[in-house]
Amino acid sequence: MAIEYVRVLRRITSGYSPGERFLVVKKATKKVKIDQIYDDMTDLSSLSRGDIKNAIDNFFHVMGKYFKDGRGVDLDEFGEFNVTLNARSVPTLEEANASTIKRVNVSFRLGKKLREELKNTPKTLGSLDVKGYQPRNTEEESQP
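Above: the chain sequence. Below: its structure as tokens.
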């Protein structure tokens, strides 16, 4: 298992050395759907797929209940979820109320163990040979 990355050319407009620079970014991948998680957990457990689905669905329900109460959830080594508010500022204390809240978000912070595991995961250069993708050749563009 490794995290694939690709190298891209980006125009940096701020900072101490603006200009064109190369960056390493994670290669785009398909997201894992919940059904795949049910299947993978069933393979690792003596529980049936229905039992796994029920446990995960109940976990989501309970997490949502805590978030609706404004409570964070600490999952030890996995990480922690915290409810945050995004609100607009107002000039007086009386105007600062629930109507100034623009958005309620949930933030996630990796736990120490998971952070270390990701840090130590191998990283490999991914192939850009993707159907329909045409790599940009900067040498041809610069020639007259």
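The chain is about 30% helix and 30% strand.
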